[in-house]
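Quick start: what a row looks like.
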Amino acid sequence: MNASPPAAELEVDPGRVAEWMAGEAPPQVIDVREDHEREAGHIEGTRHVELTQLTGAAASVDRERPVVFYCRAGTRSQMAALAFRKAGFEAYTMSGGLLRWASEGRPLFPGGGRVAEHEH
């Protein structure tokens, strides 16, 4: 299952993200959480751009490749995916965020990593 999800779908479940990342044409996967959240635990091989910095970093995101955003529970990444879709990107959000990723037994980096609380 290396193909990207249908463009109409905004949410992609963590299992599909993991398979897609392991495929021959992996998407860009961007963690939009805050620094302290990222440091506590994240998906290995992903990029970190805080949601508040994302607009300024948009030019560094490859328009020719799909992008999957994730956060703690999925709210911030959904905002990012919607904004990038409006700008013409093939953008998705990982449903359930890192909480779901971890609850399904997928690894966090660094080893022993955890899903940090989001401070509003």
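That is the whole record. The helical segments are 14-22, 35-40, 54-57, 75-86, 97-103. The chain has a mean pLDDT of 94.
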